[in-house]
Structure prediction request, 435 residues.
Amino acid sequence: MIKYPSNRMVGLNPSNPMGSPALKKKDYNPYNHTDACRHTRWTAKECYQFMSARPWQKVNDFYSYMVKGCISLSELFGKETYAIHDGTEIIEDCDKSQLASVTVGDRTGRWARVTFKIVLSYHGGSFDGWQKQPGLNTVQAWIEKSLGKFVDEKKAQLLKEKNLPIEGCVVVAGRTDKGVSALKQVCSFFTWRKDIKDQDVEESINGAAPGKIRVVSVSKVSREFHPNFSAKWRRYLYILPLNNETEGDHTSLYEKDIVDSAVCRHGRGDQSIDEASNGYAVDVDNKDDEETGNKSSRFLVSSVNHLLHQLEGKLLSYRMFARDTKASRNIGPPTECFVFHARAAEVLLPCAEKEGSPTKTMCIELVANRFLRRMVRVLVATAVREAAAGAEEDALLKLMDATCRRATAPPAPPDGLCLVDVGYSEFDKTTCLIP
Prediction:
């Protein structure tokens, strides 16, 4: 069951010893859900508490070892499933055609510049996100600093005249938030110098932050190539640990013979066989939960999978699942995304240490043509919330028509999120991690 923290006593403000009345807290009005699961659905605070209680350090360690090259996704999903992505050279068909159509020696001006496509991995827990910002330790800042030695003389002179550091300028396929890792992030860098080799770029970036940033591949591409606009799909993976170190083996809260959470779609007390419970008998009696407001912290991974599966093959507006977006991007086509693949499965996370035991986790794979800001993390948290409440399989689709973003759950922690790869050819279902 959800544990509520005890009420904290509010003391006097040190800067106000006379104890004058403090500022009133802003009232928070939760979204008024009207479906049958409204009494068993977690609040935003309960969602946050549940997600924060997971043993995230194990996931962080796993991503860290992946960036260092000590572990690969093959050990998580099997070699056959992910064999197509294990190679270090990633040059898509469109890049080959672009390279073939460009003869740099015959062109001048802006067409004579050399563009490098850089595929790299980095550990999100070591940085304050991708985007370069003053006073923050970001991935972009490290990459551009390491590329400063490859800037052409004309640009270097302009930077000196403006008293700016001599750094390169990179364009990325997608900016990741603080704490989000990447296995095959794609960025590009161009210069008018012709003496730079792929290996020179790779060695310079690898020396910037060893163990935290690693180059997967470097290749020359056409000037027309753009990491973001040329991309046709992105693949994200979210790993949610199911074991709670403070409560022993916590896996029983997720899959059991008898599920205590209310299964609202039956609407009456009886005993039935639910497909989502893998053939187990489910004791369906949600009367007490509706009257007392008891909320279970148990859910089935297969229920999350069914909820996400409903999103596949549809062009939908995900504005309710976005956060911190500009007003101009809150309606219309800017909010529409086409999800190619959305699945969840229970997977054992291998332990980085030889003596340690694997951790039971729920892995969520999402592939779409684009993602809105924090969309993946909100989708994950909302899918788990709806599964715990016993919502119907089309619950996520119904939330698309909500009138307020409070209808969806707050974003899940960034620790579990990873940008797996970016595709520049048509999406192939056979490359999915979770079939």
